[in-house]
Amino acid sequence: MKPLQKIEEVGKALVKQAASQKPLTLEVPVRSLSNVIYDKSTHMLKLGDKVSERNFFNIAHAKKFLQTLEVAAASKELLEANKHASLRDVFYMIKRTIPGTKTNIVDDQPESDSAIEDLELITGFSREQLHINANKMGSVSGHVIIEDQGDEINWAKMGSGGWSIPSNVEDIKFKKVNAKYVIYMEKAAVWERLHEDRFWDKQNCIIMSSQGQSTRGIRRLLQRLSFEHKLPIYVLADFDPWGFYIYSVLKYGSINLAHMSEEMTLRGARFLGIMSSDIEKYGLKKHLITFKDVDIKRIKQLQNYEWFKEHKRWQKEFKNMLKMKAKAEIQALSSRGISFITETYLPEKIKNKDWIE
What we know:
The protein is α/β, with parallel strands linked by helices. Helices cover 42% and strands 17% of the residues. It has helices at residues 3-19, 62-81, 87-94, 109-123, 188-196, 199-202, 216-229, 241-252, 261-264, 276-281, 293-303, 306-309, 312-324, 340-351; strands spanning 25-29, 36-39, 44-47, 51-55, 85-86, 132-133, 139-141, 144-148, 151-154, 163-164, 173-177, 182-185, 206-209, 233-236, 270-271, 289-290, 326-327. The protein has a 6-stranded mixed beta sheet with strand order 10-7-13-12-14-15, sandwiched between helices. β8 (144-148) and β9 form a beta hairpin. The protein starts with a helix and ends in a 6-residue tail after the last helix.
């Protein structure tokens, strides 16, 4: 079934309820920690079976019920016109005051974003498949040729900025992929160093970045390169709780996207970022950043994640970090030379298989 057909099916079911004089209800899978489980067989977070029922005639449910239908109507309009809209566009498409009241359907974008996530769960289709896209927030370079909406694009010939990764990468066709592996990094500044030094060309790899937590488009593109082209994925992140968390989300999934784990997780991802052993080896002690209370709290949370609990190597990193009460950024390697990361650090780490799986 296609997305448009599914939305129409949901609408018809509500019409049928109304015709039989039954309360208008929608069943929505629960999106909360209580309904997220860690599947040890697949090593990923998944959504459980808990479902909540929203009743239009229940005053506590009515607004969210209406928001979900409004978002569904906006998506139907986009699908029928074969056009795409941003999350912000959809917010404005449904933002208006309910006639005869002083109540707005939505007041802020998080409300429409939440309704879009509900629609994903109800229909079983991602927001990108529903023609709703997020902002572009990533760059990529490498010896790869793709076809995107009829245009042939060579990632090796995109200038200083690389190719800007779109929100929806499902329809991209890989025409040629010549690479040994992919390095993903959270920081655009680090990507720019690797790109300017043409690391991707010298090492025959693909370099990809975002700005902080990776977007859906980036995660899906990484998964496609991993699954369809059997490329190892290395995650280059800071030696800090947040860098470790970024790796965790990529490899095992997240609570917010537990319903899309199959399309988003990278079960073979390897952490190639700064480790406690690198602090001594590369003389980074004087560049450590002292922990704040929030950092200590976060690292203790990571220690207790089910997928990290019995992982000796990760527990060692957590223990060492708590002992140091400090963290280190990738950019600290610049103290050894502006191109130390591309000429020495990364080649050595990969050659010696100095990563964590």
